[in-house]
Amino acid sequence: MQQIFNFMYKNSNRLLFLLLLGISLSLTIQSHSFHRSKIISSANFLSGGVYERVNNLNEYLNLKTQNEALALENAKLKSLLFSKKDTTAVKKLDSLKGVKPDDIVVSKVIHNSYNVYENYLTLNSGEKDGIKPDMGVINDLGIVGIIENTSPKYSTVISILNKRTQINAKIKKSNHFGSLNWNGKSTGFVQLTDLPRLALIKIGDTIVTGGQSVIFPENINIGTIAKIYRDKQTNFYTLDIKLFNDMTNLGHVYIIKRKDREEIINLEKRKKDE
Amino acid sequence: MNSTLFVNISRFILLLAIQIIIFNNMNFLGYISPFPYILFIILYPVNGNKSGLVAASFLLGIIMDLFSNSGGTHATACLVLAYFRPSIFKFAFGLSYEYQTIKLNDVLTPQRFSFILLSVVIHHFTLFLLEAFQLSFILDTLITTLLSTLFTIIICIIIIYIIKPNKR
Q1: What residues form DSSP beta bridges with A257?
Q2: Which of residues 45-64 of A touch B (CB under 8 A)?
């Protein structure tokens, strides 16, 4: 017993190092391996609060560009409104209850990262605003990411510039779909993989979200095809997609709450159980 | 004794604040991001409590992780640097470093420079290796380590000179 204590006392520094190294390495490995299992995330009181303060200051510096973006979006919405042929036409409702399938929450990006392989954003709305994990985040130009962690006032978003994202996407004009991921190289481009070679594509075609995901509604803009890689071995294309969004410059975003999400998930689970 | 403790605590908080508010938003050419917050570990007193340094480095790293959503990469890198610091001292200043009074924040000599260089390289290599977490990215990791090390060292030396101007 005495010897054990002596050993512990002599090597206290090394033992402390090994203990803490074990903790930090397990945190690192865990953050790389599982989907949504972050213990250390910026959706908390401390970092959320600091980022919000800093962002309040920074906001004044780019008020002008934000205003311009909002004015552009307004103009686009107005043109949609005016070009409608019959404004008195009754709007078709999607379900018997007479509610729209999606709800939208406006939120603001208070922290944005884009220089590592796994990038996250922090938003200034959380559980109090009804935000839950796995909701889609978009802005007027296209998709931004998926909610990963939430706290009462803040939430973190797994950006599309993250090696772990997998988003269902399709070609706008042909319905052939593939999955969207990022190779970690450039902030302006993401990759669309597993697109069947039957699809007729050319550079410049628009890519939108597919209808298969319960996170995003169908037909939300993503980007245009910039480069086509033909692989002789497999029957699939790999495409470089140029994003409509500038991921290094994000201001206000919209969070999509899908009302029939739980219904779809329950239905699919029942199918699996049987 | 109390004043060194106070200096270290304020250095801890100040460097973290500067790192999070200013240097985390820096990103030259999409590769280079400086991390001068490790100056806390570099400037920790030579004869200070070793276990204290290891624990403080862990705390420093975990707070950085909290702010940059990076799991435990900063914590691991800081821990590795803190643990190997005595060995780096031995390498840079010779065997009898513990009996000399080494002041790091003074005129830049080759010994001091080699100590800072080695510390930054060890920290950055661990950090970027864990951040990529894939051996196929090893070339990218090495390039990022090289370029970021350069910038971190420049910023570290500038900070040392700003805080401790030459008294002579």
Answers
A1: A103
A2: 46-47, 50-51, 54
SS3 B118: helix
Q: What are phi and psi of B46, to 5 degrees?
A: -60, -40
Kindly determine whether residue B65 and residue A40, on different chains, have CB atoms separated by under 8 Å. Answer: yes
- Give residue A95's pLDDT: 42
Low-confidence ranges of chain A (pLDDT < 70): 34-40, 81-101, 274
Tokens (6 digits) for A165: 């994202």
Angle at B20 between CA B18 and CA B22, to 5 degrees: 60
Predicted confidence at residue A94, as pLDDT, reads 46
Environment class of A242 (CB within 10 Å of its CB; exposed 0-12, middle 13-18, buried 19+): middle
Instruction: Please tell me the distance in Å from B48's CA to the nearest CA on chain A.
Output: 13
Q: Phi and psi at residue A179, in whole multiples of 5°?
A: -115, 145
**Among A29, A42, A115, the residue to mutate for chain B (most B Cβ within 10 A):** A115
Tell me the angle at which helices A2-10 and A12-33 cross, rounded to the nearest 10 degrees: 70
Look at the domain A167-243 and name its fold. Answer: Thrombin, subunit H (2.40.10)
**Domain B2-163 annotated CATH 3.30.450:** no
Q: Where are the domains of chain B?
A: 2-163
Residues 174-203 of A with CB under 8 A from B: 184, 186-187
- pLDDT (tens digit, 0 to 9) for every residue of chain B, 168 residues total? 578 788 888 889 988 888 888 887 777 776 678 888 998 888 888 877 888 888 999 999 999 888 888 888 899 999 999 999 888 888 887 766 665 566 666 667 788 888 889 999 999 999 888 888 777 778 888 888 888 898 889 988 888 887 765 544
B73 with A28: Cβ contact below 8 A: yes
